[in-house]
Amino acid sequence: MDEIELGQATIVYEDPDEGTTELTVDNEEVVYARDHWMLRSGTDEEGNDLMKQIPRDRVYRVDRNVERFEEEASTVRHRVESLASEVRDRLPVGGDGEHRRHAREDEGPTRVPVTDANDEQGDD
Q: Tens digit of pLDDT for each residue in 63-101?
């Protein structure tokens, strides 16, 4: 299977050992999470990916070639939404185990009864 080219990202950051550093990687190899930019930096002896984490306050800028990346992200989003719709259509609707197989847009939202925990205990 051919790999999809998602463009590249250039990250400029302050490295404690090397000073200001500029690194260009493929877009799929850089991600922002938990206040850190994370870059795939290779693999260990067992084949596991190694990640370099750079705190956001050490990053000066991240430049991305995003045109192709946005197209692919949009395609992935549509695939996820379609899958979620299929899963939602197969979930039980009522307490009798009935399944919703072919949902139609004109059916409207599915209503789920909600009871108060105090109502189930009864009044003694």
A: 988 665 566 666 666 777 777 777 777 776 655 545 444
Strands of the 36-43 sheet, one edge to the other: 30-33, 36-43, 49-55
Cβ burial of 68 (10 Å; 0-12, 13-18, 19+) is middle
Q: Which of 19, 65, 56, 59 is nearest to 35 (CA)?
A: 56
How distant, in Å, are the alpha carbons of 11, 44, 47 from that of 50? 17, 7, 9
Q: Which two structure tokens, joined as six digits, stand for 35?
A: 């206040």
Give dist(CA 70, CA 41) in Å, integer: 24
Report pTM: 0.49
- The arithmetic mean of pLDDT across residues 7-31, rounded, is 92
